[in-house]
Amino acid sequence: MRLANEDRSIGAEREAAGTEEDSLEVPANTVLGVTQQFLRAGREDGPSVVLRFLSARRLRHPQHDTVVVLVEAVVRGRQIPLTGAASVSDGVERTSILATLQATNAFVASSLV
Q1: How many CB atoms lie within 10 A of CB 43?
Q2: Within a 10 A sphere around the Cβ of 62, how many other Cβ atoms?
Q3: What is the distance between the alpha carbons of residues 27 and 18, in angstroms, rounded to a whole number?
Q4: Which DSSP symbol is given to 63?
Q5: What are phi and psi of 48, to 5 degrees?
């Protein structure tokens, strides 16, 4: 996992143990760690943001196979729940990453402005 813009590039790689729970949680936690580092290296005039992984679930339905990730952002002591969802098409790990990125998009976008 790597986040980059013109002056920042931060990445990490971790291995999951092989269970579906690990295939959801390890990528999500990795993304949050990289995103947290990316935010810290960004704008200094913005509020400090702490991101915490809360949960990830795979929701299977005959017509949909989706991963939903719940993240918490703590900004100035205020806890803000964030959710992201993505359709499973290229593997559960990749989908967990996409859902986590979706949940944190607003904070990453604000650090780029």
Answers
A1: 11
A2: 5
A3: 12
A4: T
A5: -70, 135
What's the domain range around 70? 2-112
What pLDDT digit, counting tens, does each position of 79-96 carry?
999 999 999 988 888 899
Strands (E), 1-113: 2-4, 9-11, 49-61, 64-75, 78-87
Closest alpha carbon to 66 in 90, 95, 23, 93: 95
Lookup result for tokens 């803000």: 80
- Taking only the tens place, the pLDDT of each residue in 21-38 is 777 888 888 888 888 887
Rounded to two decimals, what is the model's pTM?
0.77
Residue 13, pLDDT score? 55
In the beta sheet, which residues pair with residue 113?
none
Number of domains comprising the chain? 1
Separation of CA 84 from chain center: 8
